[in-house]
Every structure is written in C-alpha cells, then in structure tokens.
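Margin note: ligand = zinc ion.
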Amino acid sequence: MSERLGILWHYFAARRAFTRWRNRAELRAWQERQARRHLERVAACSPYFSKLRDHLGADRWRDWPTTNKAEMMSHFDDWNTAGVRLDEAFRIALEAERTRDFTPTLRGITVGLSSGTSGTRGLFLASASERRLWAGTLLARVLRGTLLHKHRAALFLRADSPLYQTVGSRRFRFEFFDLMQPLEDQWHRLQALRPTILAAPPGVLRRLATLPNADHLLAPPAILLSVADVLDKAEWEQIERGFHMDPGQLYQATEGFLAATCPHGRLHWNEDAVVIEKEWLDAARTRFTPIITDFRRFTQPVIRYRLNDVIVADQGSPCPCGSIFETFAAIEGRCDDALQLPALGSSALVTVFPDFVRRSMILALPGSLDYTVTQPSLTEWCVALSEDAPLEPVRREVNDLCQRLGAIPPTLTRVPWTPTALHAKRRRVRCEIPSSDP
Ligand SMILES: [Zn+2]
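Resulting structure:
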C-alpha cells in the first residue's frame, strides 16, 4: 500500500471507531479477541514473549507479569520481533541526536530515543506500517473531520522524527520547531507560517500566549494542542486567555499514542488500539497508574506495560460527544512526583499527589510566579520561586493541606531558582527521597 493511501485507510478506520461498537461490552469483547490474536503473533517472533505464552497461555494474558521501560530495555534484543540489537539501535539514535538529522532508519525501522526523565533511557522502534497506522489515527483524533482543509502544522519538539514526515504532503505541511533553540529566534518563522495546527509542550504554549497578537497566530480551523508535558489548570487558563481558545491535549508517549481530547474537551483513551488496566493508587479509587497493552504494535511489543504516570479517574457521566471510549479527568504527572508525609498520630505515610501541591502553590502565589517543590526527606520540602516573594503564604497553604490530609506538615526551606530549559521535561513537584530499595 502506498504511504499516503495507507495513512488515509487508517484515518477512516480510526474515525469509524466512533460508531463501530454499540456498547462497552461489545468493545471489550472485541479488544479481548484482538489482544489474544496479537499475543500469538508476537510470541511467534519474540523469544521474550514466546516464553510467557508457553508458560501461561495467550488466554490468560491478564495474568502475565507487568513490564516497564527498564524491563524492556534490559531484554531489548529478545523483546523486539525484528531482530534489532540494542547496540545498533543506540548507534542510530545517538547519531541522529548528535547531527539533528532524524531521517536515518534501520532496515526501514525508525529508532527513537525517549527523554528518560525517570533515569532509564528508552529506545523505541516503529516499522513503516506502524508509522502509517500512528499517523492515520493521530490525524483522525486531531483533525476531527477537517481533513479537506489544507493544513500547516507547527510542531515544537525535542527532536524531529520521520514519523512526522510520514504525514507530510502538499495539502499537509509540517514544520519542525526545535525546543533546543531559543523561542525568540523562532517566533518570526512561526508568524510567517501562520499554522492551522500548533502543537507544543504547555510551557511553550504559555510563553507564546503572552506574546502580542497571540490570538492571531493561528489560521482556521485553528487547532491548539498541548503535548509532552502535564497541563495544569493555571496554565490552561493562561493559554486560553492568550489564544482565546481551549487547548486540546494529546497523551502521546514513545510508548504510543494513548489518548486525546474530544470536541467536548474530555480525554478519551484510544481503546481501538490499547487495553487499559488500572493499578489504583488510593483506597478511594481517584487515581491510578495505567498498564497498557497495545494490540497493534508489533515491532516492539507493548504488553502489560506499566507507565510511570498518575492518571486522575473520571467520575463523570458518559461524554456527550458519543464516543464509548473511556474518559479520564487528567494526566497528573509521574508516579515519582507524588510526595510522602508522615501521618498524624500513626506510623503510616500519607501520599500527597502533585496536584494537591500545585493547587496550594497557585493559591499562595501570584499567577506570574513559577515554582518548584522538591522533597529531599520525609520531613522537609524545598521551595524555589522564580521571583522574590514571601514564603509565609505558601507555609499557610501547605499547613492547611496537611491538616486536610491528616499529615504532619513538612519544614519548608527556600532554595535558589533555576529556570527549566525549553526542551527539558518540567517537573514542578518532585520526590527526591533516596529509595530504600536495595
Ligand atoms: Zn468525548
């Protein structure tokens, strides 16, 4: 199948997903069949998964052990189905990072390097047909029926990728804006392009939103997307004020394209490609870590793969957009962003989710001020503020928060502010307590 035809095929398949299943039970039964068939195919080519299938059977795949990035990387050669070795994949990926030329592939397979904020560097493989599938699905979720428009998409990325060039055509132009370059140097090129689609990390959107005439930057149909980082409420409001429109969100990681905002502003899982299992993080079941099984990704299988993210569950009603794909309320951050405090009157620990901390900081500080909160030990939080401001209101809010959670308030220490580079993943709240694991 030709490149463009392939993408179009997947585009229409993904659009059909909105009406294909009558109810959740039908969808789940279909997913189950897809997953089992996929695992059999994977097991035939991957020594790692062949052992699991022989031991437990494809029917009992939900009992298979969960995997993660570290596990995937340490079994890389046995894991992938294309016989790609770790050393050759690394060589290609590092060369691309060094030269900023991201076009070379390995026997037709794209090799991507993940930014590795969690300490483990990840390598991700995608074949040509997986790139078409990815592009078609992404376009279906993002364009929402505006395929007949001519599009100019401005993408702010840490690294360019042939993935994006896959979609490029005369009707559909992609421009790569390098997050490693200063924003000011790229502003004129962005204005000259007058994109119909602008996708960037929230920190970049926020800065663009403050520039004069930000609301005239985009041409119709004007699609604004926040990607690659957590979009918090305060930021969402600043972006909305500057651009006079709501930013949509894409939950897109090297592990796959997982979710996107619908026209009603709610996040839906891409359940036509992934099964989401939930590992609950609290007794009240408000937050979970997703375990994903992608039943279309073959070159480098993603099976019962535990993401290092905290997702806020959706307690709301079915979405009026009509999609039966499950919704969730927010992507809150990474698991290791949650802080821990000793409980009042017991030896237990209380988990303080990053969103709680962010809310306290927003209440305590003027809107223009940026901050980080890190926790070096169980009893101390280090606070850095981007501008000079008293710490007293922060202390008051943190004490209030601790009272509500039944936790002993930490000592607050002020530390110097270091601005985050444009390309760096921003983590305002971070737990840095040394792990007690061996
Ligand atoms: Zn919806």
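The longest strand covers residues 287-294.
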